Amino acid sequence: MDVYQLRASDQTPTQIHDFNPSTFPPLGLFWTIELPEDSVEVELGKGSASLRGFDVPVFDYGNIINALFGPPPSPLPTGSVSFRVVWSGVDQRVHIRNIDPVYGGFAGEFIRNKAQMEWTAEVGDYIFESDPLATSSSAFAEIGRERNGSFFPQG
After folding, report:
1. So what's the pLDDT on residue 88?
2. Residue 36: is the preceding peptide bond cis (ω within 30°)?
3. More exposed terminus of the chain, fewer Cβ within 10 Å: N or C?
4. Are residues 70 and 24 in contact, defined by beta-carbon separation less than 8 angstroms?
């Protein structure tokens, strides 16, 4: 999550917070963390899924440059985020199989649908909060099952 403040002189946005769940350099996937298995529920046939995180620790790198190329001596201050994302409905079922030797090597069954999200973030004395889940909407959402790498048969 990134937080910006408008400069009073010319209303230019200036980044004041860059919250990331992983430390730098990343130990695995960048900007990605492991959540408990019970944080995810999926009923792919119905086009529904949910993802929840509670008090997930995050580090404030201040700006994207620090987050990408190295933090200040210690990312200050630490905070936490909580969120809930819900996917629902079946607008379209999409089957993809890409065997292109350069850009391919995957197959999947996907469901294009709707998603909604609500979240809160706490850092120091500050609390940031979205509107309730029921008020959110998405321009694009998709859930599915993909096979790649050694799980993708080329034949």
Report:
1. 97
2. no
3. C
4. yes
- Report residue 42 as tokens: 């999926």
CA distances from 149 to 72, 96, 131 (A): 36, 15, 39
Predicted TM-score (pTM) of this structure:
0.78
Alpha-carbon gap, residue 141 to 37, rounded angstroms: 22
34 pLDDT band, cuts 50/70/90, is confident
Question: Locate tokens 């069954």: which residue?
Answer: 109
| Residue for token pair 């996917």 | 87
Pairing between β-strand 48-60 and β-strand 2-6 as defined by DSSP bridges: unpaired
Residue type, position 65, single letter:
I
Residue (of 93, 92, 106) closest to 146 by Cα position:
106
